[in-house]
Amino acid sequence: MTLTPEQKQAVSGWVAAGDNLSTVQKKLLEQFKVSMTYMDVRFLVDDLGLELKNAAPKADASDLSKGAPPIPARAPADAGDEPAQPGDDLAEPADDFPAPAGSLTLEVDRIVRPGAVVSGTVTFSDGVSGKWALDQAGRLMLETPQKGYQPSPADVQAFQRELQAQLQRQGY
Length: 172
Description:
The protein is built from four helices and four strands. It is α+β, with helices and mostly antiparallel strands. A hairpin with a 5-residue loop joins β3 and β4.
């Protein structure tokens, strides 16, 4: 669907005022009787070269090394093959290092939770366990006993990789 220059200017003004995609979508329908999907509004904003104020920073997909956390230097050979522990004398705090491989466990439920396409449980590297579910719209839900719990960025990446691998194995 093509918008008139006046409609495009209105969209630019809304985005500049801080409106999110959902709000722009509603205003297009209410003010101009233009029905667009959320994705179409996203493409429109991109086509107009607009930046959403509350949008997450975009990762540069052309250089994958920019988003990767630094890999800690390995201890000298005489220190053995054991990985450094949080209490070891290191120059940086242990929280800055990515979670060790295999420290996150993810399971897919055999019986899916109501309202979900797929669901399961996860235990993060810090020992916090929770239930996760993916609904028909592709939204991910995570419930943990700790109110406001946020897994570390390394755990989020490990969770995404493991979830994708598990779902592919099961034919999703």
